[in-house]
Amino acid sequence: MFSEVCWQIGGEQGTGLDSTVEVFNTVASRAGYYVYAYKTFASRIKGGHTDFTTRLGTTRVQAPAPGVNLLVALDQETINLCAKNVYPDAIVLADEAINPTLPEGVSAKLLTIPFNKMTLALGNPLMKNNIVLGASAAFLGLPLEGFKAYASGRWGNKGEEFVALIHTAMEQGYAHVQANWPDLAISLAPADGKERLLMIGNEAAALGALAGGCRMIFSYPITPASEIAESLVKIFPKVGGIAVQMEDELASIVACVGAGFAGARAMTATAGPGLSLMQEALGLASMTETPVVVVDTQRGGPSTGMPTKQEQSDLLAMAYGGHGDGPRIVLAPGSVEELVPMTAEAFNLADNYHCPVLIASDLALALFQQTVEPEAVELAKLPAVSRGPVADPAALAALGRDIFERYSKNTNENGVSERSMPGMKNGQFLATGAEHGPFGKVWENPANRVYMMDRRMHRLRGVKTEAVRYFGPSEADLVIVAFGTTLGAAKEARAEIEQLTGKKVGVLQIRLIFPVPVAAIAKYVGNGKALVVESNAVGQFAFMLKGSGYNPANLASLLKYDGNLITVEEIRTAATRVLNGEAQFMVTGGGAGVRTSSDPTIVLESAKEAHV
Amino acid sequence: MFSEVCWQIGGEQGTGLDSTVEVFNTVASRAGYYVYAYKTFASRIKGGHTDFTTRLGTTRVQAPAPGVNLLVALDQETINLCAKNVYPDAIVLADEAINPTLPEGVSAKLLTIPFNKMTLALGNPLMKNNIVLGASAAFLGLPLEGFKAYASGRWGNKGEEFVALIHTAMEQGYAHVQANWPDLAISLAPADGKERLLMIGNEAAALGALAGGCRMIFSYPITPASEIAESLVKIFPKVGGIAVQMEDELASIVACVGAGFAGARAMTATAGPGLSLMQEALGLASMTETPVVVVDTQRGGPSTGMPTKQEQSDLLAMAYGGHGDGPRIVLAPGSVEELVPMTAEAFNLADNYHCPVLIASDLALALFQQTVEPEAVELAKLPAVSRGPVADPAALAALGRDIFERYSKNTNENGVSERSMPGMKNGQFLATGAEHGPFGKVWENPANRVYMMDRRMHRLRGVKTEAVRYFGPSEADLVIVAFGTTLGAAKEARAEIEQLTGKKVGVLQIRLIFPVPVAAIAKYVGNGKALVVESNAVGQFAFMLKGSGYNPANLASLLKYDGNLITVEEIRTAATRVLNGEAQFMVTGGGAGVRTSSDPTIVLESAKEAHV
Amino acid sequence: MATMADFRTSEKSWWCPGCGDFGVLAGLQKALVELGIEPQQVALASGIGCSGKIGNYINSYNLHVVHGRSLPAAQGIKLANRELTVIAAGGDGDGFAIGMGHYMHALRRNVDITYIVMDNQIYGLTKGQTSPTSDGGFQTKSTPNGNIEKSVNQMQLAIASGCGFVANGFSANQKQLVEIIKRALQFPGFALVNTYSPCVTFNKLNTFDFYKQEIVNLDEDPTYDRSDRFAAMKKLMETNELVTGIIYEDPNPTRYEDKVSGYREQGIVNQSLEVDPVLWAKILGQYK
Amino acid sequence: MATMADFRTSEKSWWCPGCGDFGVLAGLQKALVELGIEPQQVALASGIGCSGKIGNYINSYNLHVVHGRSLPAAQGIKLANRELTVIAAGGDGDGFAIGMGHYMHALRRNVDITYIVMDNQIYGLTKGQTSPTSDGGFQTKSTPNGNIEKSVNQMQLAIASGCGFVANGFSANQKQLVEIIKRALQFPGFALVNTYSPCVTFNKLNTFDFYKQEIVNLDEDPTYDRSDRFAAMKKLMETNELVTGIIYEDPNPTRYEDKVSGYREQGIVNQSLEVDPVLWAKILGQYK
Ligand SMILES: Cc1ncc(C[n+]2csc(CCOP(=O)(O)OP(=O)(O)O)c2C)c(N)n1
Ligand SMILES: Cc1ncc(C[n+]2csc(CCOP(=O)(O)OP(=O)(O)O)c2C)c(N)n1
Ligand code: SF4
Ligand code: SF4
Ligand SMILES: [Mg+2]
Ligand SMILES: [Mg+2]
Fold this sequence. Notes:
By secondary structure, chain A is an alpha/beta fold. In chain A, helix 4 crosses helix 6 (160-180) and helix 9 (249-262) runs parallel beside helix 11 (279-288). Chain C is α/β, with parallel strands linked by helices.
């Protein structure tokens, strides 16, 4: 009886594997298991290898699995690429037709099924994946009924005959396994049967936006962000909102600024290339103190980079990428689930701090399905809409015209003053990206400049949000600092490292990337060591920490930038080395394991003799 | 006898003051004086106050003057704004017609001349400024002949009569002063008479580009960068080059990448807003390892900010502003003069390191005239063109087709491999912003990714350039770290601080902003203290230094972000405080003097109690 | 009812004396007054340029954005609150160089805004470089040997892109300009109001006198049928766009807002942000 | 002389089986071969999209840029080395959404490059969203209730902007396509080669069959006069741009390069970078 299992399927891209996996994951979720799914795919539509991995557990699973229990290989390439990751006693289930062979050194059981032949017999090539699902269900002890019910629900509109064919295909797959390998079941412990949700981060962001009062999205398609707009374009008609596909990201962000100026809660969603294009207008939002929310689903950079691969390398661009000094808030979710309240909160922060709020999502969060507890997305428990400082219409009416001080020194405790919105009588003002005085009029007076700059920047010092979240014992010997997708692996690694080393280990989740919560981090790290785990090449968050005054001496770093997810094992290894005093800077990935490296910060190592 | 004097003139924008000042400066330069000029102006064409200041000396002057000797006020506003900066015994020369009054507490001599009346008598409103020039010459003992000769040369094509009128105007102004105030001369010591050059930084950048083999500029007008293209569009026809005004900055930078790919030396020049728009394509140049040069004439940011005011606030955007991790080199000139060799060198660095090279100019360098020593711009002394690793056509021909490894592991000591250029037989390859293998083909293999990322970034660690330049004694108690316009004031302040405090003080010029030359800085600072002086609000360079591992403990900071130039006095004051152990973080400007502040790095000061 | 004074601000204009933009500003203010629109109901998004400063001088809700992006801003405002009168404004460089992409897309998207272009055929604020509407051969700071690019024909592009309202005004012809802007503001859908608004400082070619001489005034041609797209195109070609008046007005206008599914008559900003729990449960159900 | 094989790369194409882009690639390769051009003389700049991958599959100097910017890249290459045959290529989204501004300006700047658009009326690479050339009502991921924007008429825009060579090909009509591309490559000035290049995966509306049925082939109309701009415009309007062949070819073409003052016949990259000391001294003299 396993409390968790890992199922993997690989084949050619564009052969319907996506939806096959969606079926599998949904049925497993409905059966009450926790799901953590991930995949490898390329920036092409058809052809090329793709593989999908689903980790199922009776308790929360939140990181890539250490190994695979059942690998379904639809081609030999899948075996070549994936078999090395299966457990020693795993099952590799392949199509008889491909004459599969296991690579040397892999001890798993290779079983073949005549998938192709069975599909041919059913007379519809789409049935192959259904046979696969049936067979997988049989091995893992998942309820065949669940699969069949799903098919009825989803494809019912295609006619009874079609659904019946699917059912048959599933049954045949199931029966074949039961008949041939009755003893080889990978029995998964029974689930609690609770009804949970399963979604990708982009869907969670869309839900969070809806709950957070967002009614407008202006965006331009890009991997891995597109599903946010694609979800909202379906939701918004129901609430009078609007989703506009703009001509580019420059237009998208500026339309958001316009909408924010008008008083709406508007957002855009993009990935690195789009973020780069938005730098100028993010400065406009900073200058005009206009609320706007941007989700950046980070992917391999720079330039086109690796559009379908994981990375967390836009942190510096999000916090500091625009010309000049302007306020921005950057949040990072630690799970799909967290994207719902965090996206909702982003709109509150934007309205309260009158500046752009960016959400540093990442490809794995954005695109991979994870279980979401229904309690976490109960409407009543999500952040209530808080519109921040808005002028009182009655007070405005009393003012008379042309004297509303939009950028008044009369600020709230956050350093933010009231804004008016078009339609409010006597609230007219000029919002300009040029430096301006209290009424918004262009003004380059030096003293005013200093006031305005301080006004804009200083509000960040007091942002009220849960900046960090700590998991572990107090006074830990080592605190793993993580955010985004990486958090799950860090959390899973924690207990393992404690067990392995006998040391106290904590995980500090960074929810607020910028302004950097240096004090909070220092507090939790205390006299221990900090290991910052991030998916980029130069240690962007560690750099931000150090730049913000954090003592570099006790800061260790684990980086991965090969496009794959950081694993529990990698964190465990790196943490152990830090605890043993063996390493400070480490990288992993690219086929090699965790290895020591030099400080990743890019500096000139030697400067030519300067003349004195 | 003064070894230096300071002349200032103020009036309404758009009344020809620009060219009047150009005459004054040129004549003074031709007379053999060193010139350091600066001005205050607004982002409007006509109207509004403007003032111009010229500091003349018999030795190099390189910062704003501590006070003004002769202020010519064409309106009362000028007196109100500028008179507070004159020396106690200065002369304020105003038009009789404005009924001038000095503000309380200003002890200068207020003299009036009937400028308007005299102009009317001459029958041409353009003559007013010429009378002003004549009067100024008389006070400062500058040769009237020089002014007249200049007029003959410059306006000769407008006819003898016109020139004669100018001469008369100048003479009348001169005579009026001599006749009325024969004893009030502000006598400037005689100059050495050497023929020097006088230019603005944008002209110097254009010269440097020409000398550096640049033959193409693709750009879009923007203050304060436009003069670079406007100079080159006049020069390039003489060398077969081309200057194209593109539709925007997105096009400008991509055209440069195209030209660089084709093997040309191409550049663009812009300011903050344009830089922000270039972030995505700078990543393209980083990824494709294509040489490209960008001059960023920094101005007050963010967004439109203060387009006509000084700032150095694009450093983070230049070094880290794009999404993902990509190599860039950022240079900073310390004077107009230095822009010539540095711009030329930028093209060599781009060709040798195959990455974008940015020049962090700033508004004051870009737009204000400074003396340039002829020796500094002798063609033979400028960096010789070095094209970096280029494939050998013969070797390519031997290769056969489709096997040129553009991104070969066979690199030179900088980690850079040979490139081919269109036209070279068998050199065809794919340059793509997507991750790629050695032949340039898109490849997301994890090990390859790690290699390629390391390959791109690591080249920066060994960039060969004069990263820093040190002025002062060894083992100084305090090292002032400065770059761009700020350098001149730091250099002038150095001796004063030593005198005032009896301590050893040095100035460390940062010529290479990124990769940060941490080791060189640490070496020069030694056991002393470092005071980083910069014109921005959050201490961008100090942040980069700390983020790159520099020990924050002995790092002090002086910031100014009110749009004005940092002065010698401000640096002196700040340095003294640091040496006295009185302050670590200081800001100045905005009408108030140097004052202590908190660490400018924007961090969250308190993080809400996190749940454990 | 609002008066001209209500639409003025206390800010003294930063334009050069005699600049064409004064006339455009006045025309806009007058049109708003005559239509009985209140200042708080007007939102104006402007770009960067001398022209883009127009928002500094009109008492309305003004968003002065980055160079070239007044149109996305205006669309964002309008779609957020369709109850407002929304205007985008800027120069020829702002609109047709860096802003060209947005222009072409705003034309086809057809959100109900009015776009006022102050076309002086030069870059004013950056002190006199060639603009996309500059004439061939024009010598400027950026083309000392004369402009070698074909100039943009923005009105023809508008017609070609299916724009429902295309007009051209002249800063010096207030009467016509006011009428044009009034009509544009009332037009349901994207309305282009180009104006010739001379730069007296940097453009010595396309001056007030030049336009006075060259312009064909459609108001003086009673036979002109402004509902005929082809005629409009022909007229623009014949006159090289040196023509003023309402050049084309779609007799059966539509607008984007009416086609958005689920979009309501009330402005988004005036609707509740609460989510109906039933709807929420239904949406969550999709993830079960 | 180069053969088809010389223009192929060892890279297996990443397009879906049956994708229209195969035909465009083949047509381009064939045209180059037939014109006797050598691979090293060809530089191709492509944008991002399925179509933008074309540079991966042709053995030439290829610059695969960021989304929407193939045209500035191609112009940069051509002006750096006018001895090359320079091609820009990409999709309808790349060219007419994010790239629209550059398109309009490349048209009027008129640098001697050939622009090949693989128009499938959809965003392929991002998996099926509406593109600017998508038909009205088209249901996609981004417009589940149907496209409500007017589609871009890129060929009419080209004509309106004074483009000297406007052609449209169809991926499935190789013969015509090869002839078009050959002619475009030889045309002095900016040449637009639009192509209908169906996306067999995401566009189930504008399929090969659809185009086969709907397209008017100008080659079959001996009376058509391709030197008549007005006729070209009319034809495009009548056919809703569903027409193939060379739609317009300027009988008296000019190009940007010939108007640049001091610009030489030899490519810039092939000229010396040395500065003549006399010239240097003369220039410095201006600052004395
Ligand atoms: C991104 C960016 N690039 C360039 C500029 C500089 N700039 C300001 S206004 C302007 C053009 C002005 O011309 P136009 O739009 O015709 O307005 P005008 O001043 O003539 O009214 C330019 C290029 C800028 N502000 N932002
Ligand atoms: C700045 C930026 N925004 C968005 C994207 C994502 N993206 C890649 S291709 C593409 C559009 C593809 O459509 P099209 O140009 O028509 O090419 P096709 O795939 O249909 O050939 C988009 C939006 C990107 N790569 N860069
Ligand atoms: S420079 Fe030209 S456009 Fe600008 S304000 Fe002056 S006259 Fe008007
Ligand atoms: S998705 Fe469409 S455009 Fe892209 S390769 Fe497949 S068929 Fe071609
Ligand atoms: Mg203009
Ligand atoms: Mg397409």
